[in-house]
Amino acid sequence: MNANTIICPHCKREIPLTEAVAHQVRRQLQADFDAQRVAQEKAFAERETQLREIQKQLDAGRKALAEEVERRLAEERQRLLTEARRQAESRLTVELHDLRAKLTEQSSKLAEAQKTELALRKQRRDLEERQKALELEVARKLDAERAQIREAAQRAAAEEQRLRLGEKEKLITDLQKQIETLRQKAEQGSQQAQGEALELAFEDQLRAAFPGDDITPVSTGVRGADILQRVRTPAGHDCGTIIWEAKRTRNWQKGWIGKLKEDQREHRAELAVLLSVALPPEVKHFAAVDGVWVTDFACAIGLAGALRQGLLSVAGARRAESGKKEKMAVLYSYLSSTEFRQRIEAIVEAFVSMKADLDTEKRAMARQWAKREKQLEQVVNTTALMYGDLQGIVGQTALPEIKLLQPPA
After folding, report:
1. 320: part of which helix (H) or strand (E)?
2. What is the pLDDT of residue 80?
3. So where are the chain's domains?
């Protein structure tokens, strides 16, 4: 389309115009365009005004919402603080009641511990007094027995001791040499050396207990028993022989009885005693097994005294009734009788019982004292720790002062 034409609104065709008509049309179009522009600007202004109002409303709503949120947050914060304060007060109240209950319980336990400590201290003093009295009584009995034995030995062997003084000095020298030899063998771990040392020790015990008897050791390598004890009266009369065999092994062997019987017949000994660390299962301390006395080391000296006394009685009866064959049966019957065995058992059992009671009382006292000391120390330490814990919980000034638990000045 050019400037000289116009489009018909009905048929949509270009219609040629003259210049005047074209100028008028242009003015009309310009006027329409300006009117539309003004109307649009007015519409834009109105919309901008509406948008400003809406923005103001939005700002007001946003501010009101922020104030409402802040108010609700403040109310919720206050509610939470109140609830937390209430829960804390409730929890503190429970803990306070619990601490008071614990304090009461600990106070009662402390009082009970103090009572227990006082009772234990009193019991300890009583035990110390009883021990002193027991030690004094034992010392008196031992002194009395030593005095009796010493007097009897002095009366019976004073003359013979003077005659044998030189022999004993030589014997002591020989024993010292044997002990040194045995010590060297024992260091090598020889079981034979241990057995010989045991024989020598028991031989010394026999000599010390019965100085009037003839104690003869059998040389190593010679067939027979270990020790021959020839029982003699204070006047020097032979009353019979006791043959001793010492065994230091862990297991009991039945063949020992038969061998000792053969040695007894060979030496023509009246009695045979097997001294062993290991005893038959049915024997406790000592007993007669197939005509041979079997004993442990604790009862050996007591059994030797009982057997020796029996031989002395038999020898006295033999001398008093010398020449009467019928008395031999009586003597044999006496030696093999239950009465003779029971007397020997009673003597040895009394000795073993006294020794066992004394050792048991000593061990029990020592063990009980150590146990009581540990218990007292534990009670005092536990009480001090508990008192320190309570001071840390409720404060040092809230608890009563206990002088025994305070540090030294």
Report:
1. helix 300-320
2. 87
3. 5-80, 202-368
